[in-house]
Amino acid sequence: MEQQSIQISIADRYYPLRIPANDEEKIRAAAKIINEKIALYKKRYANRDTQDALSMALLQFVIRLIEAEQKEEANQITEDLRSLDTLLDEYIKINLS
């Protein structure tokens, strides 16, 4: 996979990255969203420093990640139950009819 070097800015700090070429758009979009959240928290809590805004943005993103993981687990459990229900229906039709 072709690698490329890019530089992104998060919270007014620059980070050089070596990434797969097809990930550039995704990484730049992520950095943009992070910076927007940091700006929101810096505005909301003007008496705090950038580290506080970064921490609050990170907390918000991790909460969303946990919620998404829990939803995925719930979806998987629902799918497993549907499969089990189908198997039980088939067993009943074959063995108890």
Could you walk me through the main structural features you see in this protein, from its secondary elements to its overall organization?
Strands 1-2 form a two-stranded antiparallel ribbon. α1 (about 25-45) crosses α2. The longest helix has about 45 residues, at about 50-95. β1 (about 5-10) and β2 form a beta hairpin. With about 100 residues, the protein is an alpha+beta fold. The chain has helices at about 25-45, 50-95; strands spanning about 5-10, 15-20. It has one domain. Helix content is about 70%, strand content about 15%. It is elongated, with a radius of gyration of 23 Å. The chain is built from two helices and two strands. About 5% of the residues are buried.
Separate helix tally: 2
Summing up helix and strand content along with how strands pair, one would put the structural category as alpha+beta
Number of strands: 2
Question: What would you call the shape?
Answer: elongated
Distance between the termini: 57 Å
Query: What's the number of domains?
Result: 1
Main sheet summary: 2 strands, antiparallel
List keywords for this structure.
two-stranded antiparallel sheet, elongated, 97 residues
